[in-house]
Amino acid sequence: MLHGNHKHELMFRNRFWVCLLLTIPVLLFSPTIQSWLGYSLPPFPAKGMVGPVFAVLIFAYGGTPFLQMAVPELKQRQPGMMTLISLAITVAFAYSLFALFTDIGQSFFWEMATLIDVMLLGHWLEMRSVRQASGALGELAELMPDQAERLKQDGSTESVKVSKLQPGDLVLVRPGASVPADGGIVKGHSTLNEAMITGESQPVAKAEGDNVIGGTINGDGSLRVQVSAIGDETALAGIMRLVEEAQQSQSRTQILADQAAGWLFYIAVGAALLTAVGWSIATGLEITVAERVATVLVIACPHALGLAIPLVVAISTALGAQNGILIRDRLALEEAYRVDTLVFDKTGTLTEGRFGVADWITSPEWERDRALALASGIEQDSEHPIAQGIRAKAEEAGVNSTEVREFEAVQGRGVKAQHGKATIYFGGAALLDMLQIDLDSDFLDFRGKAQAKAQNCVYLVVDQQVVAAFALRDVVRQESQAVVKRLHEMGVEVVMITGDSKAVAEAVADELNIDTVLAEVLPEHKDERIQMLQDQGRHVAMVGDGVNDAPALTRANIGIAIGSGTDVAIESAEIILVQSNPLDVIKVFKLSRATYRKMIQNLVWATGYNVIALPLAAGVLAPIGFILSPAIGAGLMSLSTVIVAINAQFLRNLDLSYSD
Fold this sequence. Notes:
Blueprint: H1 2-28, H2 31-37, H3 50-62, H4 64-75, H5 81-102, H6 109-133, H7 135-143, E1 147-151, E2 157-161, E3 170-173, E4 182-187, E5 190-193, H8 195-198, E6 204-206, E7 211-212, E8 217-218, E9 223-229, H9 235-248, H10 252-283, H11 287-298, H12 303-322, E10 325-327, H13 330-335, E11 341-345, H14 346-350, E12 351-362, H15 368-378, H16 385-397, E13 405-410, E14 414-419, E15 422-427, H17 429-435, H18 441-452, E16 456-462, E17 465-476, H19 478-489, E18 493-497, H20 502-512, E19 516-518, H21 526-535, E20 540-544, H22 550-555, E21 558-562, E22 575-577, H23 584-618, H24 630-649
Parallel strand pairs: 11-18, 11-20, 18-19, 20-21, 21-22
Antiparallel strand pairs: 1-2, 1-3, 3-9, 4-7, 4-9, 5-6, 5-8, 10-22, 12-17, 13-14, 14-15, 15-16, 16-17
């Protein structure tokens, strides 16, 4: 697609420069131009044929692409941009030949030549702008190195082409080098620059066990990476596919612009008929009637209308990709400005999907850090989510785990270990029932408050005495509160949908100030809840993980997937947030609203030209002595095209930061 576009760009560029050179003698030998500028060329045989001959060459060479592209529109009986352009230049050419050989009236050769020049220039600039706006693809492709250092079994390295790598291969990534393929670090630690993949400006710390993305830049450390994906399966290839898909798709406003060109075709033909009838009644069947009709048809060409939408959307798509927003469907970006209800899946979207310690208390004789150190020690080797939450809290608090011995799991109740001469247990309410331990008033009060917030309580028991209680909950993302606040400021209602209990869901909703909670909803029923909201007349966007939420994402007006940089090919969503950061939803809305504003502004500029020029060309102001000439009409057309192109470029200055 990109290669074909580049070929068309070169074709329009080359034809523009050739036609521009051929236009010079057309202008020089035009009687109208000579009259305007007050000069005359020396007489010589066939002097009057110089301009027409070059004009014929311009029509044949520069006008042919437009005529060829109009054929499909006419075959489908759907006149559009190319039909209007072809109509304008064909009428100008045919009328000029008629005027030349009958020697009645003024020819339009120089107007036709400049009109074709403007059209070729406009299409060249449009395609060049689209290519430049699509430059993110080229930049992404350049990130992937050509060679990789593959590790042999004896520990030495060999230089191989990246295309020769296979999943399971070990590669050495030296400091400052590009990662040749997706994979996992098996040895070493470093920081990686992932800005072009995820939009994250700060280097990301990586160590053993972490995944890396092909095309990212290694920092100061040396890494040994086991390849997991190559070629078209890499995250980079997935991103490039999604960006390219978005650039091929059409937005509703772009389709509307194409339809408007079709309407304008009929309006132009109708205006030409009215002009013919009106001028025939006023002046009789004179050559001026044909001239007026030709002028109307010539200046009806909507080049600015054709440029108004594609250029804006191409720029916005690339801008999104540079900010970690992958737009699979341009229509989704355009429609996002209409969203009035945003539905978040809870787990993994608003929350991190892991347990964290919300609070803990101890008996009077125990210090908080001492209890946390012992709890972390007894859970040191467990992979249970609660154990991971306890260890994470100890690490966050800077508390070293206490060493224990004789660790064993107590089936369905918790864990047991020895510390010194003491027997230690760690577990929930079932553990207390097994040990037949009753809680005192302080711990009962703590448990009651935790349960009211839908938090789980676990207890540290030393020699049959409860010495500490920990309240754990699904960790809410730091960004979640900010994104809900910003959405409210933008006038968007926030809904949370989850399969969790009402108590758990409402606790999270209260913390984040979410408007509506849909709790205890099975994954297969989430799309029904989306439909319910839509039946209320809402324009709904859904934010989920793109896997369990696939039906709901598809059902929503806009599906937005939280997807990590290594999992971008999520087919159920139209927009993907590469960094898995819910705050990037704000970027989507800001980009959508700015894109829509630019589209409307460009449509106003583009159609405004025709609204003004067509009546003037038809001669509505002829009674007061003003008649729009084809030359002035072409000038207005060029001006509207330039304004549209410049206005679209201003979109590049859009600030997509989270603050206003």
